[in-house]
Amino acid sequence: MPRLASTKPKRNWHGWQFTAPFAIVFVLVFIAPLGYALYLSVFQNKLIGGNAFVGFENYLHALTDPQFWDGFLHVLLFLIIQVPIMLILALVAALAIDSARLYASGVFRMVIFLPYAVPAVVAVLLWGFMYGNNFGLTANINQLLGSDVLQPLSGQWILASIGNIVTWEFVGYNMLIFYSALKTIPVELYEAAEIDGAGGFQVIRAIKLPAARGAIAIATIFSIIGSFQLFNEPNVLKPLANNAISSYFTPNLYAYNLSFAGQQFNYAATIAIVMGVITAVIAYVVQLRGTRKEV
Questions:
Q1: What does the pLDDT read at residue 194?
Q2: How many C-beta atoms surround the C-beta of residue 212 within 10 A?
Q3: Rounded to whole angstroms, what are the CA distances from 266 to 30, 221, 250, 260?
Q4: What is the pLDDT at residue 200?
Q5: From the CB of residue 181, how many other CB atoms can be counted at a distance below 10 Å?
Q6: Hey, which residues does 52 pair with through a beta bridge?
Q7: pLDDT the model gives residue 147
Q8: pTM
């Protein structure tokens, strides 16, 4: 009896060909560095014995490290105060532009977004020049007043000064996210609200804010991640405010100085992983709450 030909379909690799470039880059720039950081975090360079496996000893050290928790409290306070202010300003700007009552709204939108287009280092240097005690805008105002009433680079005000820089940089970015969400609202909803006699604030409360809830959740998650990753601003301002910004002012700055100044690569990798886990957990909780409210 003749054998029947196999009817098994031939495997199609076209999908893998399309995703292969992304998969290769993803493995090289994310998976491989993450795996190497995990590898470094379970080793310790000892005076006797060289690089030795220590298991979770570095993690236990990080959890009891006062310098790490001091930096963590800085970014946590930054998150609690700066992020709501920035998102509220961005939302107000988006609502104002979307209201169609703002004169030259296109110019207004471009002006608000423009600071985000400025390179981060340039933006910090610009504000650092204005914050300087011996030069720039602050020094000129103090000289005019005949006192040192303005001290934005002092230990008391440095976190607020950094928050001002970050707010200036990212209000436009978040405004664009909110504005894009508002533009997806069907015109029929506005027409129905007008027929029902709803006022401007009623439209915002009943239509616009619910429609922008998803965008607000996304912007909040991005802002949380950015707050815990705070590094560029304190690192650039440190030469100008050396007494106010320590080497462990934020966890990322602490990990950077441990690695490049202290040659403690293993412990620096541990700090980075601990902060990554904390950031992921908090961002997930916020996303979960935002999803439940939307449902």
A1: 78
A2: 24
A3: 18, 29, 18, 12
A4: 78
A5: 20
A6: 44
A7: 80
A8: 0.86
**Amino acid (1-letter code) at residue 114:** L
Residue 87 contacts residue 174 (beta carbons within 8 Å): yes
Q: Which two tokens stand for residue 54?
A: 């220590």
In the block, tokens 């963590």 appear at: 72
Q: How far apart are CA 185 and CA 179, in angstroms?
A: 11
Which residue positions in the chain have pLDDT lower than 70? Answer: 1-8, 47-49, 290-295
Q: Which amino acid is at 77?
A: L
Q: How far is CA 108 from CA 98, 126, 162, in A?
A: 11, 22, 25
* Tokens read off for 236: 């650039």
DSSP per-residue letters across the chain? -PPPPP-PPPPP-HHHHHHHHHHHHHIIIIIHHHHHHHHHHTEEEETTTEEEE-TTHHHHHHHT-HHHHHHHHHHHHHHHHHHHHHHHHHHHHHHHHHTS-STTHHHHHHHHHHHHHS-HHHHHHHHHHHH-SSSHHHHHHHHHHTS----TTSTTTHHHHHHHHHHHHHHHHHHHHHHHHHTTS-HHHHHHHHHTT--HHHHIIIIIHHHTHHHHHHHHHHHHHHHHT--HHHHHHTTTSTTTS-TTSSHHHHHHHHHHTS--HHHHHHHHHHHHHHHHHHHHHHHHHHHHHH-
Q: Which pLDDT score, from 0 to 100, does residue 293 have?
A: 59
31 strand-pairing partners: none
Q: Report CA-CA distances (Å) from 293 to 208, 268, 271, 276, 287.
A: 15, 38, 33, 26, 10
